[in-house]
From TrEMBL, chain A:
Coiled coil: none annotated. The keyword Transmembrane helix does not apply. Belongs to the ubiquitin-conjugating enzyme family. Residues 28-172 form the UBC core domain. Keywords: ATP-binding, Nucleotide-binding, Transferase, Ubl conjugation pathway. Residues 1-29 are annotated as: Disordered. Gene3D superfamilies: Ubiquitin Conjugating Enzyme. The active site is at C110 (glycyl thioester intermediate). Pfam families: UQ_con. It comes from Nicrophorus vespilloides (Boreal carrion beetle). This is NEDD8-conjugating enzyme Ubc12. The keyword ATP-binding applies. It comes from the Eukaryota.
UniProtKB/TrEMBL annotation, chain B:
It comes from Nicrophorus vespilloides. Pathway: Protein modification; protein neddylation. The active site is at C212 (glycyl thioester intermediate). This is NEDD8-activating enzyme E1 catalytic subunit. Catalytic subunit of the dimeric E1 enzyme, which activates NEDD8.
Length: 182, 444
């Protein structure tokens, strides 16, 4: 155990001499995200884009599903990692308008690990897999886009047609979707 | 000192001299009673109090009355009406003014001889040279981000000689926290005992509701408020800005929209206060809990400064919801803590003007002590993060590839600078300190 009093008496002499070569240290959030990014193990349907390679806290994820309702589509998500990562999850928004029961018109995504079930042991990779899964298995039970969820439950064929229509660019259920085919 | 002044000095500090000038059963093993210790408390020891709110006011009062004369206080906030019931250094006329400045002025005029220096700033506005002047840092904070920041700062200031901590570079942190009738106090010896990051899991997660629940099946008034916050505000953005919890117009807007939604779903219990609470994440504050926790913290500061008693080891919880309960235990240091397990390793570089980045990466992959696979390298230059090379991410690889053929000197990496290396072979990002065997000629 240290004895501060005697230690600090000694320290007095050399106190004001700054040590050379000291630089600002990265935060724990920065260290952790560096690790997360370096070890991103993306499925072949996903890729990332870093607008500024020096800023690992802001990036985009592009998902091009190769099976399921959304194959041939291209969907862009923006990631913003805050200073409280990994205590708090990153903020993720879908930038592509998509006809999907779990994604709304504003790009909010209903994925449990992005909100209520986030834990610090999860990584960026976990979110990537979670998002990819949403395109393979849209979940009608926790809808953000209620109409899409109802169609999915009642008429899968119509849902598939609606998805195709929306991805080609067009009106579905009174909403206009921009073309997002690969 | 005249005789009567000497008398009043004896009287005023007699209680401290009893503990500092006599041996006692709880003393540090190396404690040597002496009048010099009181002298150190009053004139040598420099304390930093972070936060001049509920805990901060108590802390400043306690420390000042304990004889500490050289105290600095940082707070970025201003005084609000709702603070006045417990933040007793402030008066109605002070509303809108800096907490740090008002608190310092109050203590300085009330406690003779005490010199509190206020800083109406954010902790992030100061650098290492500021923090290095203090002997102990006491925190009365309400934010995890701020705790993590100051924790990281103290850890980054540790100096190691051949992997052994130089204890004179260590500044203890005493951290208090309260939430209603519950509180905790802890002593952190950065690098030696559990730090904030080691025990990050202890903080309760922020309450969040599933997005689909708030969008489709709200059952609680909180769901309605969250809906307006998350969905309606970004959509309609009435003031073209982020939500400001201190702006009554914003709160009123959210209140009205939430009320509409509550009515639609037959939900009762929504009030303006609740909206304020949810939006600002307000935690009820109880004056007596603050007083207890601050007293514990101030006592720990005194123990650390004087060694008259062994400091608490190291985490105390306090709860007076129903009766009084307290328990102290030793929070354990996490062996792979992101912050405090990071003892920088030194890497000797023969000639930085000849060594290229790709040579450095080769060393990391081939040397027996590293054996890395795909190291990603980043550093801090002029306070900004810089990615040196990362092979695993295509878009980053393409734009950092040119760095491979640059020398360390060309990349702006100076002697003793630190680089962060992430690799799949280690659970954490490593910090490497580059030590140049040939000094840069220009650097004199």
């Amino acid at each position: 155990m240290i004895k501060l009093f005697s230690l600090k008496q000694q320290k007095k002499d050399g106190e004001s001499s700054p040590r050379p070569g000291n630089q600002k240290k990265p935060s724990a959030a920065q260290l952790r995200i560096t690790k997360d990014i370096n070890e991103l193990n993306l499925p072949k349907t996903c890729s990332t884009e870093f607008p500024d390679p020096d800023d690992l806290l802001t990036f985009k994820l592009i998902i091009c599903p190769d099976e399921g309702f959304y194959r041939t589509g291209r969907f862009v998500f923006s990631f913003k990692v805050g200073p409280n990562y990994p205590h708090e999850p990153p903020k993720v928004k879908c930038e592509t308008q998509v006809y999907h029961p779990n994604i709304d018109q504003q790009g909010n995504v209903c994925l449990n690990i992005l909100r209520e079930d986030w834990k610090p042991v999860l990584t960026i990779n976990s979110i990537v897999y979670g998002l990819q899964y949403l395109f393979l298995e849209p979940n009608a039970e926790d809808p953000l886009n209620k109409e899409a969820a109802e169609v999915l439950t009642n008429n899968r064929r119509l849902f598939e047609q609606n998805v195709q229509k929306a991805m080609r660019g067009g009106q579905v259920g009174g909403l206009y979707f921009e073309r997002c085919l690969k | 000192m005249g005789e009567s002044a000497q008398d009043s000095y004896q009287k005023r500090w007699g209680h401290l001299r009893k503990v500092l000038e006599r041996q006692g059963p709880f003393g540090h093993p190396e404690f040597e009673p002496s009048p010099e210790i009181l002298e150190f408390v009053m004139n040598g020891c420099k304390i930093l109090v972070i936060g001049a709110g509920g805990l901060g006011c108590e802390l400043l009062k306690d420390l000042a009355l304990m004889g500490f004369k050289n105290i600095h206080v940082i707070d970025m906030d201003t005084i609000e009406l709702s603070n006045l019931n417990r933040q007793f250094l402030f008066r109605r006329k002070d509303i809108g003014m800096s907490k740090a400045e008002c608190a310092a002025a109050f203590i300085n005029s009330r406690v003779h001889g005490c010199q509190v220096t206020p800083h109406y700033k954010r902790i992030q506005d100061f650098d290492e040279s500021f923090y290095r002047q203090f002997h102990v840092i006491v925190c009365g904070l309400d934010s995890i981000v701020a705790r993590r920041w100051i924790n990281g700062m103290m850890i980054s200031m540790l100096q190691y000689d051949d992997g052994v901590l130089d204890q004179s570079s260590l500044i203890p942190i005493v951290d208090g926290g309260t939430e209603g009738f519950k509180g905790n106090a802890r002593v952190i010896m950065p690098g030696l005992t559990a730090c904030i990051e080691c025990t990050l899991d202890l903080y309760p997660p922020q309450i969040t509701y599933p997005l689909c629940t708030i969008a489709n099946t709200p059952r609680l008034p909180e769901h309605c408020i969250e809906y307006v916050k998350v969905v309606q505000w970004p959509k309609e953005n009435p003031w073209g800005s982020n939500i400001d919890g201190d702006d009554p117009q914003h709160i009123t807007w959210i209140y009205e929209k939430s009320a509409e939604r509550a009515l639609q779903f037959n939900i009762t219990g929504l009030s303006y206060r609740l909206v304020q609470g949810v939006v600002k994440n307000i935690i009820p504050a109880v004056a007596s809990t603050n007083a207890v926790i601050a007293a514990v913290c101030a006592t720990e500061v005194f123990k650390l400064a004087t060694s008259c008693c062994v400091p608490m080891n190291n985490y105390m919880v306090f709860n007076d919801v129903d009766g009084i309960y307290s328990y102290t235990y030793e929070a354990e240091k996490k062996s792979n803590c992101l912050a405090c397990s990071q003892v920088p390793q030194t890497l000797e570089i023969k000639d930085p003007s000849k060594m290229k980045l790709k040579d450095l990466i080769q060393v990391l992959c081939e040397s027996a002590s590293f054996q890395m696979r795909n190291p990603g390298l980043t550093t801090y230059i002029n306070g900004k993060n810089k990615t040196l090379y990362m092979s695993t991410i295509k878009s980053i690889e393409e734009r950092t590839r040119d760095n491979l053929n640059k020398t360390l000197t060309d990349l702006g990496l100076s002697d003793n600078c630190e680089i962060m290396v992430a690799d799949q072979t280690s659970p954490n990002t490593l910090i490497l300190k580059l030590k140049y065997l040939i000094e840069d000629v220009n650097m004199d």
